[in-house]
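MODEL INPUT / OUTPUT PAIR
PAIR INDEX: 1
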Amino acid sequence: MSEEKIIVGISQGDINGIGLEVIIKTFLDPQMLEICTPVVFGSNKTASYHRKALNIEDFSFNQIRDVTEINHKRANIINVYEEDAPIELGKQTEAGGTYALKSLEAAAYALAQGKIHVLVTAPINKENIQSPDFKFPGHTEYLDEKFGDGNSLMFLVSDTLRVAVVTGHIPVTQVGQALSIEKILKKIQVLHKSLIEDFEIRKPKIAVLGLNPHAGDNGVIGNEEQSIIIPAINTAKEEGLLVYGPYPADGFFGNSTYKNFDAVLAMYHDQGLIPFKTISFNSGVNFTAGLPIVRTSPDHGTAYDIA
C-alpha cells in the first residue's frame, strides 16, 4: 500500500439513496485525489447507473479486483457483486438493503485485513438492511461488534461544534433506564481520550447535558441528574478531567454556551443531533470514537426524497 496517501475504503450505502451521488461528486474534484486514494466497495454497473442518472460524463471509476491493484491517481471501485442490481431511485426496497450490506461487509473485511486504512460509510436504511447477518440499529453498533469492545461513541463533529451521545439508536422510552453512572462515566472517558488522540486537544473541556427539562431543576422534574449524571461528572473530575454540567439542553445551545467547550456529551440521540444538525448540517461528519479503526460517515441519511 502507498505510504504517501491514505487509502480510504468507502461502502456505497443504499443503492436507491444519495450515497453514490455524494461519492461521485466528491471525486469529481481532482484535489481530493491529492489527499487520499479512494476505493469504493460496490459495483461498477451500479455506479454507472448513478453517473448516467446525474448526467455526469467526465467521470469513471478505475475497476479493480483487489486493493493491491489500486491506481493512486484514480477513484477505484471493487465489484463485490456482478449481477445487475435493481435500482429504484428514491424508494425503500429490499434490494437496497441487500446490496448495502454486501458493500459494507466487503469494506469491513478489507479494513480488518489492513488493505484499507480508514472506512467511510455512505448512508443505509436501517430497516431494509435488517437480515440474519445484520441485526443492528446502525453502522455504529455493527462496527463496534466487529472491531470494538462495546464502548464505541457516536460523535458528530464540525469546525464549530462536537457532540457525542451516551445512548444511540434506542427508543426514547428506554433512554432513562439505559443510563447509569458507569455508562456515562465511560462515555466521558472515551470522549476525553478521543479529543486528545484524534483532535490533538491537550486539555479538553467537556460539557455534559442533563436528561430532563431544566436539567431536572434540582429534582423537581426528575432525579436522574442527582442520582446518575452528577455522580458520573464528579467521578470524572476526581480523575482530573475537565468536565462540567449538567446543563439544560435548550438554553445551552440557545445562548451558544457550547462555544466555550471542546465537546458536548448529550444523554440521547435527538438531544444532541437536533442542535448539531441545526448548527452544522452542511459541514458535519459522523465519527465513531472508541474504536481501534477510523470510521466516518455523512451526518445525513439516504435522502430518498432528493435521490
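PAIR INDEX: 2
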Amino acid sequence: MQLTLRDFFMRLPLLSGIGLKTTTACWHWVSQHTELTNVTPAILTQLCQDMAIPDKRAALLLDQLFTAAVTARLTTNLTHSGCLTIADAAYPVALKETYAPPVALFFRGDLRLLQRPLLAVVGSRNPSAYALHAMRLLLPRVVQQHIGIVSGLAQGVDTLAHQVALAYRGPTIAVIGTGLDHCYPAANRDLMDELTQNHLVLSEYPWGTSGARHHFPERNRIIAGLSNSTLVVEAAHHSGSLITANIALQENRNVLAIPGRVDSPNSVGTNELILAGAKPILQPEHIIEEVLVDKLP
C-alpha cells in the first residue's frame, strides 16, 4: 500500500501514541526528500531509521498508518471538516517556516482568511477593566485595515478579540486546543458557531478530541506561527500568554505589548516583555505599521 503525501500527513494526527515530536520528525525528513511523492511501508521504515525514531514509536507508526481503522477515522474527520496539510499549496508559508509546524490542520470555515495579513492577540483569561478598555480603543482601527485577528477562543482577552473583529466586520481566526466538535469554554459555543460559518476555526486535533493541559501550549505555537506579529494585551508573570510571546520571539516574529499599571499583577508579564524589547503599543498605528510593514508606502 502507498499513500500520497497529503494522505500521509492527514493520517499522522490520527495515530495513537504519536505526538508532536514524531510528526515534526516526519515532516523534517519529508522536506529533505523533495523528490518524494508517496509513502510506502519501506519508505516509512527508512524515515524512522534516518530520524532515529525509537523502536516502540516506529512500531506504532508502521502498525497503524496503513490500516482500515485509520482510514475510517480519517473518513469521519473529513465528513465533519476540511483538512489542510503541510503538503498542500494553500498551507501558510509563515507557519511552514516554524520549527514544529502542524502537519495537518482540521478546519471549518473559510481558508482564504489565511492569506490576509494577520495579528495574533493573546492575554489573560481574567482581564482587568483596563485591558478590555485598551482593546476596545486599539483593535477597531486595526480590523478596519483588513487585518485578520487570530486568537484561541478562550475566555477573556481571546473572546473579546474575536468579538471586536466581528463587530467591525473584520476577519477572525480561532485556533483551538480540542477537536472541532468540542468548544472550550462551553460558554463560547455560539461564538464558535459564528466563526465556523463565516470566518475560520482551526485545530490540529482530530474530531472527538477533548481538551488536555498540554494541548494549549501546543495550540499557542500555531497562533504565533500564523501571524507576523503577536500582541500581548495583559499577562501575569507566569501567564500562558508569555509562552505564545516567547514562541513568537523564537520564530523571529514581532512581539507587541500593551503597557500596564506597575502595581497590577496582571501587567507584570507585559511590562517585562517591554523591558526585554517588545514594542509598547500606545495607539492603533503602532500595531498597523508592524503588521503591514511590507505594504505601507
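PAIR 2 NOTE: Residues 3-80 form one domain.
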